[in-house]
Write a structure and sequence with these properties.
The complex is a heterodimer of chains A (272) and B (345).
Chain A: H1 3-33, H2 43-49, H3 51-84, H4 90-97, H5 105-116, H6 121-130, H7 140-165, H8 168-176, H9 181-210, H10 213-218, H11 225-235, H12 239-264
Chain B: E1 7-15, E2 21-30, E3 35-39, H1 46-54, E4 64-67, E5 70-71, E6 82-85, H2 97-107, H3 112-125, H4 141-153, E7 159-163, H5 171-188, E8 191-196, H6 199-205, E9 208-213, E10 216-221, H7 223-228, H8 233-238, E11 243-250, E12 253-256, E13 259-262, E14 268-275, E15 280-284, E16 290-299, E17 303-309, E18 316-322, E19 332-337
Parallel strand pairs in B: 3-8, 3-9, 6-7, 7-8
Antiparallel strand pairs in B: 1-2, 1-4, 4-5, 9-10, 11-12, 11-14, 12-13, 15-19, 16-17, 16-19, 17-18
Helix pairs in contact in B: 2-3, 2-4
The chains are: A mainly alpha (272), B alpha+beta (345).
Chain lengths: 272, 345
């Protein structure tokens, strides 16, 4: 072994130990424990046979997908606007729009309750207007609002950065060839932003799939997958089922990220 | 028969929102089928003028742009039928070469087969057929440039506007494409406005050249006029190299520290005469009016550029001449200039 390779080995050793001890070993344990259920059956078969698990999986997918679509639509619109215009207070607006990045899920949940909870702003306004209080904080809708709150800043920043890198001459060239604003948007700008939209969209989806803090704050009976895993693990002490559901959640999230990585060519990592 | 439109620019100026005046009001007429080059250093307003003609910028109040006599000042670019080639080419990376070229026809609603046939015809004309299925990132700089031109021409525009189309290419390719573009544009008889900071490009491609400086027109004329009869010191200095000698003129002779030169001018206490490096001739020391020392010689193949200096006064002149003449730096030479070659400003 040359001294150079020995040096490299010494440098990489700590990371190897950390990865094996804190990452690979628990993963292997989780995987190993996920097969045989408490009643001696196969956990994955039981997931497919239990409506509660299936409906929670479906609900989680729907909330994550809705979060992704709404976030992308809003962020692309606002992102393009922000990238193209220079006005006083622009950086302040950008800072305010990305402020929720600083909050953990618990705080986001708290904000949703302040907005749409039993004593919330929306409830007060609707009571005064219609006599009926509109409360949706403790439901899937509340959760969706919370996830939007949390994914819009991330996606927005990515879209703004990508849109600022676009050559303005691309749009001008399309216009010189007769394309009006909508054609330019659909034929030139959106295809150019596709990699950024895919990458940040996958991130939003993955984050929404796995987010726990917001759901936990809003209500303990919101049946999204991370909540079910928590319940199985802590309340029912059903470790095998919690492990199996974790693997399912992990696989879906990983798949979303992998597809996005494939399609965008850029590196995409889950966060949150 | 020409397919181009005539262009009239009347009192067009541009002041940006921050108060900078990029363009002082100018008026220019371009005949149908004419090739006009707009030449100037960066920041002279040439690109702003082009963008106003294109419809990408609005002129200040009072300015008007007319195509074939029709006022298009308020018409956006997508309604003007102008072909435009950008310095960055601005090819659409999400489309193949043929889809780029056919894009304008697609916007017009032409069916896929028809527009591809038409795009193929333009690609053939520009000898790009074998590239038609390529992605843009698979093309070289020169190929991109030609695809950008093909895309603009596929629309059969009445006006072709080119914004520094060759600037991003290396010198040899630039010369080749310059000749190719010139031949193509002349065969198409399309009205062309060509913006460049490169005087050789402007002189080759322009039937007429407009030299711009600091947001205004310094001179408009044929390449020959601009080179041999520059209207002012800016044009004289910007186009080609120019020598300048200052001194008093008495009895048809200009006196300077390096000697005397016959000039065709009235007596003056102080005057400046200018001449091109190729207008002067090196002669043996003592002959000719001036005597200077050879400082260095740049051999350029067909010609050589000789840098002369008068040590006592610091007067420096350049002379282009026969490259077969073997000149040694440090030796003294005489310089003769025919009085008809002087440019008096």
């Amino acid at each position: 072994m040359t001294s150079a390779t020995r040096f490299s080995v010494i440098l990489i050793l700590p990371l190897t130990i950390v990865v094996v001890a804190f990452f690979l070993l628990p993963m292997a344990e989780l995987f190993a424990r996920s097969f045989v259920s408490r009643n001696g059956g196969i956990t994955y078969a039981e997931i497919l046979a239990t409506p509660r698990y299936l409906s929670s999986l479906g609900a989680t997918l729907i909330v994550a997908a809705l979060t992704t679509v709404i976030t992308l639509a809003l962020s692309t619109l606002v992102g393009l606007l922000l990238a193209r215009s220079r006005f006083p207070g622009r950086s302040l607006l950008l800072a305010v729009l990305t402020f929720p990045l600083a909050f953990p899920g618990v705080v986001v949940g708290f904000l949703v309750i302040l907005l749409a909870g039993r004593q919330g702003l929306i409830g007060e306004v609707t009571r005064l207007a219609t006599g009926e209080k509109l409360v949706f904080a403790y439901s899937m809708t509340g959760l969706l609002v919370g996830y939007l709150y949390f994914s819009i800043p991330r996606v927005l920043l990515t879209i703004v950065a990508a849109a600022e890198k676009l050559d303005p001459a691309l749009e001008e060239a399309a216009r010189s060839l007769g394309a009006g604003p909508w054609r330019v948007l659909s034929d030139i700008i959106l295809p150019a932003l596709r990699p950024a939209m895919l990458a940040s969209g996958a991130l939003a989806f993955a984050t929404a799939m796995g987010a726990f803090g917001t759901a936990f704050t809003l209500a303990t009976n919101i049946d999204v997958l991370p909540m079910v895993i928590y319940t199985e693990f802590t309340l029912n002490a059903n470790i095998a089922m919690a492990a199996a559901l974790s693997i399912v959640l992990g696989l879906i999230t990983w798949l979303a990220l992998a597809i996005a990585r494939q399609a965008s060519g850029a590196s995409v990592a889950a966060a949150g | 028969m020409t397919s181009g439109v005539s262009i009239s620019v009347a009192g067009v100026g541009k002041t940006f929102a921050d108060g900078t005046q990029a363009l002082r009001p100018v008026s220019i007429d371009v005949a149908a089928g004419e090739q006009l080059a707009i030449l100037g250093p960066s920041g002279c307003g040439k690109t702003t003028l082009l963008r106003i003609i294109a419809g990408l910028e609005h002129p200040d109040r009072g300015g008007a742009v007319l195509f074939d006599g029709r006022d298009v000042t308020r018409l956006p670019i997508e309604k003007r039928n102008v072909g435009m080639v950008f310095q960055s080419y601005a090819l659409f990376p999400n489309m193949s070469v043929i889809d780029n070229v056919a894009y304008g026809l697609r916007v017009r609603g032409m069916a896929r087969q028809a527009r591809h046939a038409e795009a193929r015809r333009v690609l053939d004309m520009m000898r790009l057929s074998e590239l038609s299925q390529r992605r843009i990132d698979q093309l070289s700089g020169g190929q991109r440039q030609r695809v950008a031109l093909a895309r603009a021409l596929a629309m059969k525009p009445g006006v072709l506007l080119l914004d520094e189309p060759l600037t991003a290419l290396d010198a040899a390719l630039r010369d080749e494409l310059r000749a190719e573009i010139d031949a193509l544009l002349r065969s198409l008889e399309i009205t062309t406005i060509y913006v460049t900071h490169d005087q050789a490009e402007a002189m080759v491609l322009g039937d007429r050249v407009i030299v711009m400086e600091k947001g205004g027109v310094a001179q408009a004329g044929s390449p020959r006029d601009i080179y041999f009869k520059p209207a002012n010191t800016f044009v004289a200095g910007f186009i080609g190299s120019m020598n300048r000698i200052d001194g008093p003129i008495t009895g048809g002779m200009l006196a300077c520290p390096a000697g005397h030169l016959p000039v065709r001018a009235a007596d003056a206490a102080s005057a400046s005469v200018r001449f091109r490096p190729e207008s002067a001739k090196l002669v043996p020391a003592g002959q000719g009016g001036l005597t200077l020392e050879i400082e260095r010689v740049h051999f350029l193949g067909a010609t050589q550029r000789v840098y002369l200096r008068h040590a006592e006064s610091g007067l420096a002149l350049i002379v282009d001449g026969n490259s077969r003449l073997d000149l040694v730096p440090g030796t003294k030479v005489g310089l003769a200039v025919d009085p008809s070659n002087f440019i008096m400003l």
